[in-house]
């Protein structure tokens, strides 16, 4: 899995806040960038936690794949 997909997954799973979950889905679909999220004061703390978890490699690749399959929008 690529870094952005993993960050989107961790961001989605780290919060029950619907706004943060929406930003995670937007990140997954390329509607918002990691840089934009780091600038958003409402999400900065979550981004720090998520990136530290990613560096520690504490992530289940199968769950990341299921998240991507569920929330990635495909344009045909």
Name the shape in a single word: globular
Percent helix, as a range, is 55-70%
Q: Name the assembly state.
A: single chain
Span of the ends, CA to CA: 22 Å
Residue fraction in strands: under 5%
Instruction: Give the topology string: H per helix, E per strand.
Output: HHHHH
Number of helices: 5
Structural class by SSE content: mainly alpha
Q: Give the integer mean of the pLDDT values.
A: 90
User: Quick one: how many beta strands?
Assistant: 0
Alpha carbon gyration radius: 11 Å
Would you identify the regions where 5 or more consecutive residues have pLDDT less than 50? none
Largest sheet: none
* Number of discrete domains: 1
Structure description:
- This protein has helices at 3-13, 18-28, 34-39, 44-55, 61-71.
- The chain has 76 residues and is mostly helical.
- Helix 1 (3-13) runs antiparallel to helix 2, helix 1 packs across helix 4 and helix 1 (3-13) packs across helix 5 (61-71).
- The mean pLDDT is 90.
């Amino acid at each position: 899995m690529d870094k952005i997909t993993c960050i989107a997954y961790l961001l989605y799973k780290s919060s029950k806040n619907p706004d943060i979950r929406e930003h995670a889905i937007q990140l997954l679909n390329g509607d918002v960038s990691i840089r934009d999220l780091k600038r958003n004061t409402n999400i900065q703390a979550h981004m720090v936690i998520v990136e530290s978890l990613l560096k520690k490699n504490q992530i289940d690749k199968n769950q990341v794949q299921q998240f991507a399959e569920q929330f990635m929008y495909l344009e045909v």
